[in-house]
Amino acid sequence: MRPQEAVERALAASTADDCIVIASETHSANVRWANNTLTTNGVTRSGDVTVVSIVNGGSVRAASLSRSGVDGSDLVALVEASRAEAETAPVADDAAALVTTAPSPDWDAEPGDTSVRDLGGVAEGLAEAFEQARGRNEARYGYAEHAVTTTYLGSSSGLRLRDLQGDGRLELTGRSADGRRSAWSGLRAATAEGLQVSRLERDVAQRLDWSRRTIEVPAGRYDTVLPPSAVADLMVETYWSMGALDAHEGSTVFSRAGGGTRVGESLTDRPLSLHSDPSMPGLACTPFVTAAVSSRLSSVFDNGLPLGPVDWIKDGRLAALLQTRHSATVTGLAVTPYVDNLTLVGRDASGGTDELVAGVERGLLLTCLWYIREVDPQSLLLTGLTRDGVFLVEKGEVVGAVTNFRFNESPVGMLRRVTAVGQSEDTFAREFGDYFTRTRMPALRVADFNMSSVSQAS
Amino acid sequence: MGRPVDPAFTSLPLAALADAALTRARELGVDHADLRVERIRTGDVVLHDARLETSHDDDEHGLAVRVVHNGSWGFAGGVVLTPAAAVGLAEEAVEIARACHPVATERVELAAEPACGDGTWVSSYDVDPFDVPMSDRIALLTDWSQRLLASATVRHADARLRHVRENKFYADTAGTMTTQQRVRLQCQLTGIWVDDESGRFESMRTLAAPVGRGWEWLTGDLHDWDGELAELPELLAEKAAAPSVEAGRYDLVVDPSNLWLTIHESIGHATELDRALGYEANYAGTSFATPDKLGTLRYGSPGMHVTGDRQAEHGLATIGWDDEGVAAQTWDLVRDGTLVGYQLDRRIAAATGAGRSNGCAFADSPLHVPIQRMANVSLQPVAGGPSTEELIAGVDNGIFIVGDKSWSIDMQRYNFQFTGQRFYRIRGGALDGMLRDVAYQATTTDFWGSMDAVGGPQTYVLGGAMNCGKGQPGQTAPVSHGCPAARFRDVRILNTLTEAGS
Q1: What is the ipTM metric for this complex?
Q2: Using an 8 Å Cβ cutoff, are A313 and A272 in contact?
Q3: Would you list the domain boundaries of chain A?
Q4: What's the rounded Cα separation, in Å, for the pair A294 and B172?
Q5: Does A458 lie at the interface with B, CB-CB under 8 angstroms?
Q6: Using CA atoms, how far apart are residues A172 and B77, in angstroms rounded to an integer?
Q7: Predicted pLDDT of residue A72
Q8: Which of residues 16-55 of A touch B (CB under 8 A)?
Q9: Hey, is the C-beta of A260 within 8 angstroms of any chain B C-beta?
Q10: CATH no. of A3-206
Q11: Tens of pLDDT along A392-402?
């Protein structure tokens, strides 16, 4: 069954007072490699349907059920089960009028596709990279994936919205045969053509080269250059911690003592802005709310709500938090729902990672961060590890590799210690790229970055 | 026990799908082919301050064909459960294997496994939570949330329930055909205290573990929910009023509710042979416990005995056969403090000459390829060993840690840092009030080497997680870890406020 047909048939079958249907189809292809050989792979086609039934017998109640691989009779059963659950559900605190907007002009268009053939370029690039790595007594490891997700959102209020998103990623790890040297680089591209191994190989080879000389330094606080990938992980975690309800209730770093949120407060003197925009060129993402469930950060009633540009932090000042229409009412702030891309921009940005390194008298250059977990939500203290190469910088130049470290840092507290900001560039967050791929970040130079202890990992 | 597999699953055309896919794969000349058909139902209920925030039931169906063709893997998955679709997936799997072959220089061989014919296995549970009306599930969490909110200490209360029913059908070209069903559930409640004047807040969460059980875990006498909910507000109040820890080195007594996660990260993942061989180097990482150290690496003190199993009753990784048709087993990973074993799938077993896989292949979805996933990895108690009180009595200057919270470990499983739900100061062999802002940080072999006493069976608890991540594309797996309480000497304790620079 075509997803549009699933939407129409479900809406037609619904006996609830209102109904929202989200039908999405994802086609993906992936390939993995290790020790200079391709390992596992996969090509998949999935499709699922979510039915949200809303009943209004004086108070509004809702229920959401999802199912993959539905045929005609399954669909009617799903619609009926959803209505039955809504009848006995508690009152929905986030109830709001359903959204009405003009239908997408491409509503009738077929879902997008991808196939393993789209990764042919990756395989060719790898054949060459493997051969060169063998010649240097090194090995390559990594992953490439391209997926196309097409979403069809319909409602009894007349919504008929279609959205297509392509999303690809490529990651490359290089290791010396003795396992003592390790380097990583990654990228995100909307199309399979953008997944070019050669774009990463140079970075990996350079870092492996830098690692030939190793220098011992102790744990401590260092003048540290974080490349865009590391900044992306820290900013994505910060973004995910921006829930308006939790801030309003006093349980996050963005809560104000005595009640309310810190919106309007300065987080740093630096003119840094954290920003989302579904129409950002190269990082475009779904321009309307799709919410299969309600939660602290989402409301099924907001489905179809148009998304626009948002400054979460504007010139160093906290400007907005993640909202639903419901939470915006509770907090008295603007309706600024979650948007699936994120960029950090410095108004005083200059150069890139190399230029920031050039300004360091003695400090560290990271590759990326890993195993980042919240330790204390009060300060948003995070712990985690540096991974795949940390380099000692002296008089503006990389002089060799040091050990990896465990860090303990708050990305919010860290913003006050930023001493230089590079130009923002498209990057791939090493850790959170599994869940959040569209990031454009600068390199940051941070004073006194807290390397809590040495990790022997190499 | 003796429960039937859900008829809605067995009524799917399982044998016809297997015949269609495997026949086509054989025609295309595969070395091996297998078909999985799965149905995974996941129920979620989330309440905040006793008000419903999230309720969702997800019902995933799908099938996948995996082949080894001319020594290369091929995998294709979809959601259409017809023989024609199964044939199409077999063809696609062979196509991708052919496409990858020129760059796949390592020939895939699978360790032999006796064909099991037609097998059925159902996990041990009484009541499938999906047989409990959603309104009843919500009502239970509402009642429990209200109990917490009745205390003046608890400003906010979160309640979360997730339960899963997983059906798997597996058939391969060697003649194994299995049909399985398992049920698992996790329920957690958290109380939050907020001080308006200072803006300080603290939280305290229930300790009940996720389990391979049904609704009876919440309503029967298997776990003392009433007791946990009753004491949680006063524990939270005590933590809120507790002094901040002084960073330094302390002896630790670690409760099983915390230690299971340290076992998971520093032993469970480190003894995955695919990691040790580099297959996860780009993602989950590698392992310091490399095969050249098998039989010689001093993992910890002589009292350390760690097993892997897929057989513990109510274990989250427990199963009849894994996703390669390998029957469930139990084996040693660490014996008398020495590394003696690994977790295997059939490919790594063959590649390393291990002979037979110990059954650790698992895929979290019909759309994902099986990879080596964690068995139940458990620290064995010492027969006649000490109680928790006796362990504490042997500490002059230390900390007793209860409940898991934050966790992080490096890419080779050396350096870890954990926090917890509550921390008690130990002075002169007795508890002396709570502390807050505590984290412990160590290197794996130093930590396990510092374990000078292992608790007895009376302290043993089966803990675990529903959300262990590994692989690309990312997969999550449920896994249990049993352990007794244990004592560790001279461990580095951090103050998390100091770490944050405040």
Answers
A1: 0.96
A2: yes
A3: 3-206, 209-235+347-455
A4: 41
A5: yes
A6: 25
A7: 80
A8: 28-48
A9: no
A10: 3.30.2290.10
A11: 999 999 999 99
